[in-house]
Amino acid sequence: MKRAAIIVLTESALATARKVAEATLDGEIHGLADRVPDCDVVFSDTAAHLQMLFRQGRPIVGVCSAGILVRTLAPALADKRAEPPILAIAEDSSSVVPLLGGHHGANALARRIAEALGGMAAVTTAGDLRFGVALDEPPDGWTLANGQDVKPFMAALLAGGRISLEGDAPWLVESDLPFDADGALTIRVSDSRVAGGPTSLVYHRRNLAVGVGCERDAAPDEAVELVRRTLAEFDLPAGAVAGVYSIDLKMDEPAVEAVADDLGAPLRFFAGAELERETPRLANPS
């Protein structure tokens, strides 16, 4: 998730904003210039600034009324699948309301902030309320392979459907989902590529490490195609990649960066001496 922008329009909201910044770990406080100049970022046009942040996909946490955020961002709303988390927080910290992007980080962020502030997260999405879990927002270390099927799956679930679970996923078992070995709905946990559908969700653990090396100025599209082809050859899901790794000499190589961007995975580099120490336990050392 990108760095959260915490919006402050009055001096009285600044204390709460600072607590929110601590709760979000890397939150950046944005203040209205003529009222709250002592902030990380200042702005003079509230509507223009909020809409710019929205288009950038930045999570927006407004320590202000929900109405201000709704009226300001309404003209920018288009595709709910691409909306960043938008939250409104009462100045007295009593309530945290996820307005948009509930299943794209807003609900989880609201709960984290509410816990830190001693307030209440006003989560309203049906799945969270009824089952205590958002199926399209798996926890860190997990990925959903067929997010496009969550809506019909959840509709069937809310209509009384029961779920057959294949595989091990403690975060699902600990929820209030109605599991039944004979359920018509299925959740599969797999380390291989598995086809899902409207009645079948597929989750992968992020447990694959992709090592990438290349010649100087290698073509990024060739590197991406090679990694994708290799994963397919061994029937490994791209969504299970936890990270892309290389030697520090390749830190400025666009091809290595392109692979990480394509997989949506973090990129990490190691010194040659670090990699050499691992050689004895590798089947195919570099």
Label this structure with key terms.
286 residues; alpha/beta; four-stranded mixed beta sheet; 14 strands; 31% helix; globular
Structural class: alpha/beta
The end-to-end span amounts to 33 Å
What does the largest sheet look like? 7 strands, mixed
Number of helices: 10
Could you give a quick summary of the protein structure above?
The protein is an alpha/beta fold and about 290 residues long. The chain has helices at about 15-25, 45-55, 65-75, 105-115, 125-130, 150-160, 170-175, 220-235, 255-265, 270-275; strands at about 5-10, 30, 40-45, 60-65, 85-90, 95-100, 120, 140-145, 165, 185-190, 200-205, 210, 240-245, 265-270.
What does this structure look like?
A 7-stranded mixed β-sheet has the order 3-2-1-4-5-6-7, sandwiched between helices. It has 10 helices and 14 strands. The model has no long low-confidence stretch (mean pLDDT 89). With 286 residues, the chain is of the alpha/beta class.
Summarize the helices and strands and which ones pair or pack.
Blueprint: E1 5-8, H1 14-23, E2 28-32, E3 41-43, H2 46-55, E4 60-63, H3 66-73, E5 86-89, E6 95-100, H4 106-117, E7 120-121, H5 126-131, E8 142-144, H6 150-158, E9 163-166, H7 170-173, E10 185-189, E11 200-205, E12 208-211, H8 220-233, E13 241-247, H9 254-263, E14 267-270, H10 272-277
Parallel strand pairs: 1-2, 1-4, 2-3, 4-5, 6-7, 9-10, 10-11, 12-13, 13-14
Antiparallel strand pairs: 5-6, 8-11
Helix pairs in contact: 1-4, 8-9
